[in-house]
């Protein structure tokens, strides 16, 4: 199950992350159960895991792997399990090698279900299976995150690839606890939710961009074939206004993945709200985190526009001086 490897602990940060990400997991049978041997990170960070219960620091990463090392990841997964959140079980850890034997969860990532929903919506399918599965996943994930946050733990790496839907019952399994830490601060939990929303929207934007690129390539191939068969017709098509007609479907296709991701996150919040004892504080901080992200994006766009305007003014002055 290649999609589960990274989520169950394979590190992807830094030089050690590249090594761990390229390293194939070893499938074994551990006490009669299917398992994976994966790399989580050597050691326990500075002080051999002395800060594993606190917010991870960048200067406390293990030699290769998660911040805080293998101890931090294993303890975070164990804590989540005790809180009632489904995670891959950790059967055995080796601190010296940084490798752990974990449960081989049969399932698929949340992102695959979102992609199925986009494909179903674009095809106009009326089966509704992907929509029903997505609604159930949103409700289950909202309850799981409420349990995790109310228990004083922040995941820190939520995304479409770190949430698995288990085969058979579709239960939500949280994975990839490399950035997890303990916190009772509402802002940390709101940031956790906002990070999930940003990750889903980023994946939706990337998918929409890939679809638009494929559509443009298909149109270019069609135009080339038309030009080869009928040069006069191709010339008239280039002079006409056909590009505007093609822009509308492209814009609609671009917004569809983002609409589905946004709707999923709102349904997740609707499930998180009644399940969390700290919803009021988290909700207020979530609005603050969202506003902060929007303002930072607006400032970046304004800075880009200002720099572009400055460049054009300099060019105009240079041209006037030469004339």
From TrEMBL:
What are its GO biological-process terms?
tRNA threonylcarbamoyladenosine metabolic process
Q: Where is this region: Disordered?
A: 1-26, 42-67, 213-247, 290-323
Q: Give the keywords, sorted.
A: ATP-binding, Kinase, Nucleotide-binding, Transferase
Q: Does the keyword Cytoplasm feature in the UniProt annotation? A: no
Locate the compositionally biased regions of type Low complexity: 213-237, 302-323
State the InterPro entries in the record: Kinase-like_dom_sf
GO CC annotation: what is one? nucleus
Query: From the UniProt record, which GO molecular function terms apply?
Result: ATP binding; protein serine/threonine kinase activity
Question: What are the EC numbers?
Answer: 2.7.11.1
Family stated for the protein in its record: Belongs to the protein kinase superfamily. BUD32 family.
Q: What is this protein called?
A: non-specific serine/threonine protein kinase
